[in-house]
Design brief:
Helix content: 10-25%
Strand content: 35-45%
Shape: globular
Number of strands: 6
Number of helices: 2
Length: 105
């Protein structure tokens, strides 16, 4: 069946609201250079989508620490990492996915 994109987004939101997701930081860099923990993965957030949206809404202004890539400045050094999202199924299976949080206009 065909539907409008906005209708589809509402349906997907309802289906995924109680699904558990997690955001993993990797590829850590300091001033563009690899850091000692570059190979390590750090869980930034984990929880039901409805809770993640409440605590960390998706921002488009470059200040979203759960975005695909994030960078901030600390004492003149650019610290950055990339973010990978995973869906955690009821049986514990992890599936890589896109950022599930809706874009807030």
């Amino acid at each position: 069946r065909w539907s409008h994109a906005s209708d589809w987004r509402e349906v997907m939101w309802a289906l995924n609201a109680h699904t558990v997701f997690r955001a993993i930081a990797y590829d850590h860099r300091n001033g563009g250079h690899f850091q000692g923990n570059t190979g390590k993965e750090v869980t930034l957030e984990e929880g039901r989508l409805i809770d993640l949206v409440t605590t960390n809404p998706r921002r488009t202004n470059g200040q979203d620490p759960l975005a695909e890539s994030y960078s901030t400045s600390l004492k003149g050094k650019a610290l950055s990492y990339r973010t990978r999202w995973e869906r955690i199924d009821a049986d514990g299976l992890l599936t890589e996915c896109a950022d599930p949080r809706p874009v807030v206009a």
